[in-house]
Design a protein that fits this description.
By secondary structure, this protein is mostly beta strands. The protein is built from three helices and 19 strands.
């Protein structure tokens, strides 16, 4: 095997550089002299995640496709903590990303099975209030491009960033209760009736027809709700003023000189 570096990270104070190599080793280097200080052994597959602690220069986190998550003391070249992401009945889940919290007391990881893993100090009771499965109903909606090559949502023909806030659903597309819908930015202050999505039947890529969320419950309800944003209101106001100006211009054109005198209007 020809060795290749798959990931690289500096520690918090930049004194050390850690590289992940495709032979499953992590190597700790002196960033000033280039001297190899330690080989960190533990991973059994390629590593694409290296995260430094936000303020402790000794600590580095690594995670890989083997499902292993390690916390290392890179100054000593030793393993501090280890977690293996075993999923019951499915083997291990490859870890794709990890991030420390700003206070360094927690870190969160995502895996190949769509799980969010949260590690740290304290009680996990607050997390038990959240459903096991949380997706946006637009997560797997197909996109298309218009004549200007802009990206649009295929179903609504809208630019994704102009679409209303999505609904939270489970893995089968069933919407969660209204108390969870308020967790979505933009829906915090909505009335209950505006948090109930409209359901419809949609064909999947396999040709199976399933019931899924397709949008707001009704257009009327959407209009009766709160203004989506100040910017949307300004756009509506500018459009209204433009329509009024166009109306005035058309009236002036129709009531202009009738005897052929005067300056002709340009088209």
């Amino acid at each position: 095997m020809k060795p290749k570096v798959t990931m690289i990270a500096w520690n918090q104070n930049d004194n050390y550089v850690v590289t992940a190599v495709n032979n499953h080793l992590l190597k700790v280097w002196n960033s000033s002299t280039g001297q190899l200080l330690h080989d960190l052994v533990g991973h059994a597959d390629e590593v694409f995640v290296l995260e430094t602690h936000p303020f402790d220069s000794r600590i580095m986190l690594s995670a890989g496709h083997d499902g292993n998550i390690f916390i290392w003391d890179i100054t000593k070249g030793t393993k501090t903590k280890h977690y293996f992401n075993m999923i019951e009945g499915q083997g291990h889940g490859a870890v794709f990303d990890c991030k420390f919290s700003p206070d360094g007391q927690h870190f969160a990881c995502t895996d190949s099975h769509g799980h969010l893993l949260i590690f740290g100090f304290g009680c996990s009771r607050s997390y038990e209030k959240i459903p096991d499965q949380m997706f946006f109903h637009t997560d797997y909606r197909p996109l298309i491009r218009d004549s200007n090559n802009y990206v649009l949502d295929e179903q609504t023909q809208q630019a994704p960033h102009l679409m209303p806030p999505p609904f939270l659903v489970d893995v089968d597309g069933n919407p969660h209760p209204t108390k969870y819908q308020r967790l979505v930015p933009g829906r915090e202050n909505c009335a209950d009736e505006h948090l109930i999505p409209q359901l419809g039947y949609v064909a999947t890529s396999d040709g199976e027809v399933v019931e899924q969320v397709i949008g707001q419950q009704t257009v009327d309800q959407d209009e009766q709700g709160l203004e989506p944003s100040i910017l949307d209101g300004m756009i509506r106001q500018l459009q209204l003023e433009q329509d009024q100006r166009l109306g005035v211009d058309q009236e002036s054109a129709s009531s202009g000189p009738q005897n052929g005198e005067g300056t002709p209007r340009r088209g």
